[in-house]
Amino acid sequence: MALVLGGTTACSTGSAPSPSTGVDELVIPTPSPGPADFVDAIDNPWFGLDDATYADGSGSRVERVVSKGPDVGGVPTTAVTLDGVTDLYAQDALGDVWWFGHAAPGATWRAGSGGAVAGLVMAASPRRGDGYRRADVPGQDLRSTVLSVDRDSVVVQDVTDGVVTRSTYTNGVGLDLVETDTGSVVLARQEAGE
Question: What is the mean pLDDT of the chain?
Fold first, then answer.
């Protein structure tokens, strides 16, 4: 006999519950991240961070540069600069990657300042259907939904102030492709030497 409680199924067999995955038990966005909950480096295999080259929609080359970022509220961050825009990321001890800041012309924020709150960008174990806020920034709507997951890739749909994009992340590599909802390419990772 199965009993459904608040969307969770409990079986009378007494078997142990499955371990949490995806966004289970995470508070997203996280209003007060504890520095002790974060590690110094990002090694989530879905969110690989290395210097890389992308082509934008017009075919122009765009360089991604990764460097040590500032501590934000005591949390060590990694700065990722792509086409003149810098984002700050940090990984928690469970392997989830959080977005702590953004610096671009006309759209700059940092978690803990001006009402901005850090949000999730990649779970340690993403699951199809997981939805979350990438950050909570006053005046901006920043939501994500995991569209598909297999052993090689994760596809995430991002909505930023009504603009829909799909980002494909490859296991062991990180971000490979960003497309609009109409299929046009925003960014495509280039192989070394291309």
Answer: 85
Each residue of 81-118: pLDDT tens digit?
Answer: 998 899 999 999 999 999 999 999 888 999 999 999 99
- Full-model pTM: 0.84
CA distance readout (Å), 149 to 64, 122, 169, 177, 185? 25, 12, 10, 15, 20
Closest CA to 53 of 79, 78, 80, 82: 82
